[in-house]
User: Fold this.
Amino acid sequence: AQSVTQLDSQVPVFEEAPVELRCNYSSSVSVYLFWYVQYPNQGLQLLLKYLSGSTLVKGINGFEAEFNKSQTSFHLRKPSVHISDTAEYFCAVSKSGGFKTIFGAGTRLFVKA
Amino acid sequence: DSGVTQTPKHLITATGQRVTLRCSPRSGDLSVYWYQQSLDQGLQFLIQYYNGEERAKGNILERFSAQQFPDLHSELNLSSLELGDSALYFCASSVGTSEHYEQYFGPGTRLTVT
Assistant:
């Protein structure tokens, strides 16, 4: 069975600093990987996804993630964060034929001025 | 705005009661998913429907049931409510059943059981 581990529950960072949110997954088959963001009092929205091809995936709002098959990781990065990036970020994994997407526990990113 | 609508936005009810949460997917989306989000359990997948048929089941309790209607809207029914059912319930939709389709989430229904 597949699972997702987000290694940090909270990440505080200063404005304009770089950030990396870590995600590891476990699955014995090829997977599809997603990062979603949840702003306060809102539903989740997709930041980016990896289906196949290039391991570096670019998403909205300046975020990018790198798929590393050997390390079974899909870390999310942004070179310079803004206050408005304060939100909860969810890593998710699904697999072909699996019908359901498994979400990680979430990482709360807190950007300080 | 994701295009997914959920009603009501907030619901306060007592233990033992029954409630119905409603979801309208984005125009053209055939799949509907239900999730429960709570502080202790995180985001839990409950159930998925595709074009009226149940497609996948997650950690859904027997007290909970769902259906998708011919117009593709979906309802989640929660019965014999317990304090622990207090949570944010999200509906999401996607174009098809394939796992590589992204899901579009509604704003959620906050259920409080007292």
